[in-house]
Specification:
The protein is mainly alpha-helical. Among the domains are: 233 residues, no CATH class; 59 residues, no CATH class; 181 residues, no CATH class; 267 residues, no CATH class. It has 50 helices and no strands. The longest helix is centred in the first third of the chain and has 41 residues. The two termini are 61 Å apart.
Length: 1122
C-alpha cells in the first residue's frame, strides 16, 4: 500500500493503563476555549462535496459488480496519489447489501494473521469515512506511545485537502446506509471478538510485534483500537473527532451487552458451584472446573470494567462537553443506552449528573436528547412488572433536584420537541407518584397558558403536529389525575353504587359513575384555572373559553372516548327525581349542576368531543363511531340543550359554537340540516333557527369587531345566507322558505329599531342653538353611540344579503345621512371639548366605523347588481335615482376627513387613527365608483350615466381637490414618520412638509412589565440572574418587533390605498414619487409593494376588479400579512 503519512517514531516502552491520560496532550480538560478556537479554524477550511472517485480494486477482497445505488466515492482531489489504493473495508461498506458479519469475520481472520496491518486498515477506515486521502502505513502504528503525534500529522494532512467527502454524516437518503454499516461492523467486531476470546489478554499471546503493558488487562486488539481511536477523538478537526467518538461510544454500548452476558453466566456458574458443594459426594474435577470458570468470568468482567473506565475517562468526560452539539448529543444518547443495558454500573448519581448539567444546554438538539433519554429511563421504570414503582436512590435524588427545572422547561423551552418530551416525562413521574397535589395542578395549568399564548411571543410551535402532541401529553397528565380521584370516589361510594345497580338497573349505575368522573374533572379543571389566573395575576378569568379544546385532546384517550352521550345526559339529567335519600342525597349534592359555570364546563366538554369526533376519519372496518351517526342521535337532544343554553349568555356562546360545528358539511359528512331533512323534520330546524335569529335581534353587542358571539353568528350566516337567493335553483341550500321569511322580518325590525334611534337620539328642534353650541356637540355624540348596536347587527347581516331591497333600510339610511349632516359637527366638537373626545375616543371611532361601513356595504351591493346586469336590462336603471344618496355620503365623508386635524388634539396618534379610518372608507367608496365608471363609460345603456361625472365635483373623472389630497398625504406622512422612528431611520422629506414630523415622540401606552411571567417569584429565584435578564431582554425585543410590525402593516395598507388612487389618476401624479421617496431606506415589505405597483394595472383590468371594498380591503391585508 502506498505510504501516505510516515512518522518517525523512537521506540520506547509505555504503561498502557495510563496511555490516554499521559500522552494525549492536544486536549486540555480544564479549558475548552483553545480547542474551540482551533476547531472553528479547521471547520472553516472543511467543505463537503459529492465529487465522484474512480473505482479501484481492493487489496483484500475482490470487489463485487457495481450497484446502481448511490455510494461514497473516491475524491477527485488533484493531490490524490496516482497509485492510491482504496481501503477495502470502506469500499465494502459502501455497498448497501454487503454482509457485515462475513466482512467482519474476514477482518478477524486477517487480524489473527497480520495484527498490525489489520489495525492499520481499521484505523484508515475511520479516516476514509471523513474523506481523508492521507492514510496510515503499518509502521506508523508500531509505537502506541507516539499515537498523539501520528494523529496530529494526519490532521495536518487532512486539513490541507481542498475538498472532502463525508459520507458518515451525509444527509443524502441514498447514503444513509453507510453510517449504519460502519457502526454495525464495530458491533460485529465486539461480538465475534467476544466469541473468539480476543477481548481478553491471553497468556499465550505473542506480543513481539505489539506493545505490551503487563499492568493492563486489555487484549492486544482492544489496546490498539482504544489507543488510536481515542487519539482521533481528541483531534481539533471535527469530522475526525466525531466519527472516532461515535465508534468508541458504540463499542462501549456493545461491551455493556457483553458485560450483562458475563455476569449472567457467572451467576449461573456460582449457583452451579453452590449446588456442587451442597452434595454429599463432591466431584473434585467438576468442582475445580466450575471454580476455574468463575475465576475466568471474574477476570473477563474486570477486563470489561477496565474498558469502561478507559473509554469513560479518555473519551466521554471530555466529549460530553464538546463544542460540537452533535458530539454532545451522541454522548448522552449512548449514556442512556448504557444505563438501560447495564444499570448496575452506569445508572448511578455520578452518571445521572451529566443529564442535569446538559438539561439547560444552549443547543436544542442536545436538550432534546437529554429529555428523550430521561423519558426512556422513566418509562423503563413505569413499564416494569413491579406494581410499586421505585426510582432508586440516585435517580430519586436527581429527579428531586431537577424536577422544578423540568416543569418550567415543559412550557418555557423554545424547542417544541423538548416541551413534548418533558411533558411525557412528567406524565411518567405522575404515574410513579412523585408529584404532589400542587405540582399536579401547576403542570395541568400549562394547558391554559399554551392555548392562550399559542400565537404570542411566549409560546410557539413550528407545526400543528407538535402542538397537538404537546396537548395530547397534557391530556394524559390531566387524565391520570382525574382517574386517580375517580377511583377513590368509586371506592368511597362502592356500596351505594352496588345498591343502585340492584334497585334501579346497571344503566343508571353506569350513568352515575360517568357523571362522577366528569364532575371530578370539572372541579379539577376549575382548580387549575384559578391557579393559572392567580399565577398570571389576571383580573378576569378567560380560561373557561378554552375548556372545549382541552377536552378535544382528552376525548382521544380511551378513558373519555365515545363519552359524548354521557355528557349530554349529564347536562340534561334531573337529579330531583332520583338520589333523594341518605348517601344518595350526598352524591346528588356532589354531582348536580347547580351553577351555570358547571353547565358551561359540561357543554364545553360536549363541544370538544364533537370536534374530536369530526376530525377522526372513521372507516367501515374501524370501531370508531361515525360522526354522522353522532349528529343523528344528537338531533334528539338539540332542542332541549338550546332551551337551557339560551337562558345564559356564556352557555349560549358555547351552544352557538356547537351549533356552528354541527351545521357544517364538509368532506362528505352531513350536518344537522341534512340529517333533519332526511328525517323529514325541517320544521324542527326552522324552529331552532327562529330562536337563534330572535336572540341575535335582541342581543346587545359590544360595538367592536371582536365581539365573539357576533363573529360566531357571522360563521352561521355564511352557511345559512350564502344561498339566500338560490331557492328553487337546485343544489344544496340550508335556507328554507320559512327561514327566508324569518330573516326578512329580522332585517325589517332591525331597520325599524335603527330608524327609531335616529329619530330620537339627536337633538330636536326644541333644543336652543345656545345649548347646542355650549355642549360643543357632546350631546349629539353621546346620543350617536346608541345607534351603533342595532346598526352593527344590521350591517353584519348586510354583508350576506342585499339590504337595498328593503324599504325600511332605504328610509333609515336617508334619515341617518340627513341627521349626520345637519347635527354632527366634528370640528366644533374637537375644538371645544377635546377632553371629552379623548375619554370617549374608542366609542366615537367604533361608531363612525359602523356607520361608514354600513354606507359602504349598501353602495357595494348596488354596484354588484349593476355590474352583473345584462346590457338589454341596463335601461331599467336610472343612476341619478339609484345613487341619490351618494352625493350626500361623499360630502359627509369629505367633511369629516377635513374636520380632523392635529391642531385640535394633543394626541397625534389618536388623531391619525381617526383620520385613517375616515380616509380609508372614503378611498374605498371612491375607488369602487371609479372602477364602475371606468368599466361602463364607453358603452352602457344606463339612464343618466353622465350623472356620475357630476357627483362630488367630478371625483370620478378628475383628480381630488388639493385639500383632500393633502389630508390623505398627511395621514401617510405621519405613519411613515412613526415607522421611521421605530426603525431609527433618518427619512428624507420634501421642502413643503411639516418639519415637526422629524421630532415625533412615540407614545408608550404599554410599558413592558418585567413581572409579567408565567411563573411566580419562587420559580424566578431558581433561575440564574443573567438568564433572567436575558429572558426579559428577549421579551422586550419581541414586544418591540411586534410594535414595528404593527406600524409597518398599517403603513403598507394605507400606502396601497394611495397607490390605488394614483393608478386610477384620482390624485396628482407627483404623489407617487413622494410615496416612494423613502422606499430604499424603509425597505422590507414596503419596498416590495412599490416595486410591484404598476400604474396601468388598475385601469387596464377594471373589468376583473371587484367593486366590493370589503373584499378589496381584506385582500390588501392578506397580501401585507403574507
Amino acid at each position: 500500500m502506498p505510504r501516505a503519512v510516515s512518522v518517525d517514531i523512537e521506540s520506547s516502552e509505555l504503561r498502557r493503563s495510563s496511555r490516554a491520560a499521559k500522552k494525549r496532550q492536544t486536549y486540555v480538560e480544564s479549558d475548552d476555549s483553545d480547542e474551540s478556537a482551533s476547531e472553528a479554524a479547521s471547520d472553516d477550511e472543511y467543505k463537503a462535496t459529492n465529487v465522484k472517485r474512480a473505482k479501484t480494486a481492493s487489496k483484500k477482497r475482490q470487489k463485487k459488480s457495481p450497484s446502481s445505488t448511490s455510494r461514497p466515492s473516491k475524491s477527485s482531489n488533484s493531490s490524490i496519489p496516482k497509485d492510491f489504493e482504496e481501503n477495502y473495508l470502506y469500499e465494502s461498506l459502501s455497498q448497501p447489501e454487503i454482509s457485515i458479519h462475513e466482512l467482519t469475520l474476514e477482518w478477524i481472520e486477517a487480524y489473527e494473521e497480520e495484527p498490525l496491518e489489520s489495525i492499520t486498515t481499521l484505523t484508515n477506515l475511520l479516516l476514509r469515512c471523513c474523506g481523508c486521502i492521507h492514510l496510515l502505513q503499518p509502521h506508523d502504528l508500531q509505537n502506541l506511545d507516539s499515537a498523539a503525534d501520528t494523529i496530529a500529522e494526519v490532521q495536518i494532512a487532512f486539513e490541507s485537502q481542498k475538498t472532502h467527502e463525508y459520507p458518515f454524516i451525509s444527509n443524502n437518503k441514498d447514503l444513509r446506509f453507510f453510517r449504519k454499516n460502519v457502526l454495525e461492523l464495530f458491533e460485529e467486531l465486539i461480538d465475534i471478538s467476544y466469541e473468539k476470546g480476543l477481548l481478553y489478554n491471553n497468556e499465550d499471546d505473542d506480543d513481539d510485534e505489539m506493545d505490551d503493558d503487563s499492568s493492563s488487562l486489555a487484549s492486544p486488539l482492544m489496546r490498539n483500537v482504544l489507543t488510536w481511536f481515542t487519539s482521533l477523538s481528541t483531534s481539533t478537526a471535527r469530522p475526525l473527532r466525531l466519527i472516532s467518538t461515535v465508534i468508541l461510544l458504540t463499542i462501549q454500548t456493545k461491551l455493556c451487552h457483553v458485560m450483562v452476558n458475563l455476569i449472567s453466566n457467572q451467576e449461573k456458574s456460582q449457583k452451579q458451584l453452590t449446588n456442587i458443594k451442597a452434595k454429599n459426594k463432591k466431584s473434585k474435577a467438576k468442582l475445580d472446573a466450575v471454580t476455574n470458570t468463575i475465576k475466568s468470568y471474574h477476570l473477563q468482567i474486570e477486563t470489561i470494567n477496565e474498558y469502561f473506565n478507559d473509554i469513560s475517562e479518555t473519551v466521554f468526560i471530555h466529549r460530553y462537553r464538546d463544542v460540537d452539539p452533535t458530539i454532545r448529543q451522541e454522548c448522552l444518547r449512548h449514556l442512556g443506552e448504557w444505563m438501560i443495558i447495564y444499570p448496575d454500573h452506569f445508572f448511578q448519581s455520578s452518571q445521572l449528573r451529566y443529564f442535569g448539567w446538559l438539561l439547560s444546554d444552549p443547543s436544542s438538539q442536545v436538550r432534546n436528547e437529554v429529555v428523550k433519554v430521561l423519558l426512556k429511563l422513566y418509562r423503563n421504570i413505569t413499564s416494569s412488572a413491579a406494581s410499586n414503582y421505585s426510582l432508586g436512590v440516585g435517580f430519586r435524588q436527581f429527579t428531586e433536584r431537577f424536577k422544578r427545572q423540568m416543569m418550567n422547561m415543559s412550557v418555557k423551552d423554545q424547542d417544541a420537541n423538548v416541551r413534548v418530551n418533558l411533558m411525557s416525562c412528567l406524565v411518567e413521574l405522575q404515574k410513579i407518584g412523585f408529584l404532589d397535589e400542587l405540582e399536579i395542578v401547576d403542570i395541568s395549568s400549562h394547558f391554559f397558558f399554551i392555548l392562550e399564548n399559542k400565537n404570542g411571543t411566549e409560546f410557539s410551535t413550528k407545526s400543528k403536529a407538535s402542538e397537538d402532541k404537546l396537548k395530547l401529553e397534557l391530556a394524559k397528565f390531566i387524565s391520570i389525575a382525574n382517574i386517580d380521584s375517580y377511583k377513590r370516589s368509586l371506592e368511597k361510594y362502592s356500596i351505594y353504587l352496588e345498591n343502585i345497580g340492584e334497585k334501579e338497573n346497571e344503566e343508571t349505575k353506569s350513568q352515575i359513575e360517568g357523571f362522577m368522573k366528569f364532575n371530578l374533572l370539572i372541579q379539577f379543571l376549575k382548580k387549575c384555572s384559578e391557579y393559572y389566573q392567580k399565577k398570571r395575576k389576571a383580573t378576569s378569568n378567560n380560561a373557561s373559553k378554552v375548556i372545549h379544546v382541552i377536552f378535544e385532546s382528552l376525548y382521544q384517550l380511551p378513558s373519555y372516548h365515545k363519552s359524548w352521550e354521557v355528557l349530554v345526559n349529564y347536562f340534561l339529567f334531573d337529579f330531583t327525581a332520583k338520589l333523594t335519600e341518605g348517601e344518595g342525597l350526598e352524591i346528588k349534592n356532589l354531582l348536580e349542576l347547580n351553577s351555570n359555570e358547571d353547565k358551561h364546563y359540561v357543554l364545553s366538554f360536549l363541544l370538544g368531543s364533537l370536534e374530536s369526533s369530526k376530525n377522526i376519519k372513521a372507516t367501515s372496518t374501524s370501531e370508531e363511531e361515525n360522526y354522522e351517526s353522532i349528529i343523528l342521535k344528537l338531533s334528539n337532544y338539540i332542542p332541549t340543550i338550546q332551551q337551557i343554553s339560551i337562558k345564559n349568555a356564556d352557555l349560549f356562546l358555547v351552544y352557538m359554537k356547537t351549533w356552528n360545528l354541527i351545521l357544517s358539511e364538509s368532506d362528505g359528512t352531513k350536518g344537522i340540516f341534512t340529517v333533519l331533512q332526511d328525517l323529514e323534520q325541517t320544521s324542527l330546524f326552522n324552529d331552532l333557527i327562529e330562536k337563534l335569529l330572535k336572540y341575535y335581534q335582541n342581543y346587545e353587542p359590544a360595538i367592536t369587531e371582536n365581539d365573539e358571539l357576533l363573529n360566531i353568528y357571522d360563521e352561521v350566516f355564511v352557511k345559512l345566507l350564502s344561498s339566500y337567493n338560490s331557492i328553487g335553483n337546485g343544489g344544496k341550500v340550508l335556507i328554507t322558505p320559512e327561514i327566508r321569511i324569518l330573516v326578512q322580518n329580522m332585517v325589517m325590525e332591525l331597520a325599524g329599531e335603527c330608524t327609531h334611534c335616529a329619530e330620537s337620539i339627536f337633538i330636536t328642534s326644541s333644543t336652543s342653538e345656545i345649548e347646542q353650541f355650549q355642549s360643543g356637540g357632546v350631546i349629539q355624540f353621546e346620543n350617536m353611540y346608541k345607534i351603533a348596536s342595532p346598526l352593527l347587527k344590521l350591517g353584519r347581516v348586510g354583508e350576506f344579503i342585499n339590504l337595498n331591497g328593503f324599504k325600511q333600510v332605504t328610509t333609515f339610511s336617508q334619515l341617518l345621512i340627513s341627521k349626520l349632516q345637519d347635527q354632527v359637527n366634528l370640528e366644533r366638537y374637537l375644538t371645544t371639548t377635546p377632553t371629552h373626545f379623548l375619554q370617549n375616543y374608542s366609542n366615537i371611532t367604533n361608531t363612525f366605523k359602523i356607520i361608514l361601513d354600513f354606507f359602504l356595504t349598501l353602495n357595494s351591493w348596488t354596484l354588484e347588481e349593476l355590474m352583473f346586469t345584462p346590457a338589454n336590462l341596463q335601461q331599467n336603471f336610472d343612476l341619478e335615482i339609484t345613487f341619490a344618496n351618494l352625493r350626500h355620503i361623499l360630502s359627509l365623508e369629505s367633511s369629516l376627513l377635513l374636520s380632523v386635524t392635529s391642531s385640535h388634539i394633543k394626541s397625534s396618534s389618536i388623531v391619525n387613527q381617526l383620520q385613517t379610518l375616515i380616509g380609508v372608507k372614503f378611498i374605498d367608496l371612491l375607488v369602487s365608483m371609479k372602477i364602475f365608471y371606468s368599466k361602463f363609460r364607453k358603452s352602457n345603456e344606463f339612464k343618466n350615466f353622465q350623472f356620475l361625472s357630476d357627483i362630488g365635483d367630478g371625483f370620478f373623472i378628475a383628480r381630488l381637490n388639493i385639500e383632500i389630497e393633502q389630508r390623505l398625504l398627511d395621514i401617510f406622512l405621519f405613519k411613515e414618520a412613526v415607522l421611521g422612528k421605530l426603525l431609527d431611520i433618518d427619512l428624507d422629506r420634501s421642502e413643503t412638509e411639516d418639519v415637526n414630523l422629524g421630532d415625533l415622540e412615540l407614545e408608550e401606552n404599554d410599558e413592558f412589565d418585567a413581572n409579567d411571567s408565567r411563573f411566580d417569584e419562587d420559580d424566578i429565584a431558581d433561575e440564574d440572574n443573567a438568564t433572567l435578564t436575558k429572558s426579559q431582554e428577549q421579551k422586550m425585543e419581541e414586544k418591540r418587533n411586534q410594535k414595528v410590525w404593527t406600524a409597518e402593516k398599517e403603513f403598507c395598507v394605507f400606502s396601497m390605498k394611495l397607490f390605488t388612487l394614483v393608478n386610477l389618476s384620482m390624485v396628482d401624479s407627483g404623489l407617487k414619487s413622494r410615496i416612494e421617496l423613502n422606499n430604499e431606506k424603509i425597505g422590507g415589505l414596503f419596498s416590495k409593494i412599490t416595486k410591484q405597483n404598476n400604474p396601468q394595472s388598475t385601469l387596464n383590468n377594471v373589468e376583473e376588479i371587484s367593486t366590493d371594498p370589503v373584499q378589496t380591503d381584506q385582500s390588501i391585508i392578506q397580501t401585507v400579512e403574507t
